[in-house]
Amino acid sequence: MFKDNYYFMMGDNKPYSEDSRYLGLIPERKM
């Protein structure tokens, strides 16, 4: 379950993307 106002982001170039798989959930205020 995700927290309110947090997002799981994934890049389109999976092997080279630094996304939520590495950084964790991204708060809405940082987008």
Automatic annotation (TrEMBL):
This is Peptidase S26 domain-containing protein. GO terms for biological process: signal peptide processing. The lineage of its organism: Bacteria, Pseudomonadati, Bacteroidota, Chitinophagia, Chitinophagales. Pfam families: Peptidase_S26. Residues 4-30 form the Peptidase S26 domain. GO terms for molecular function: serine-type endopeptidase activity. GO terms for cellular component: membrane. Keywords: Hydrolase.
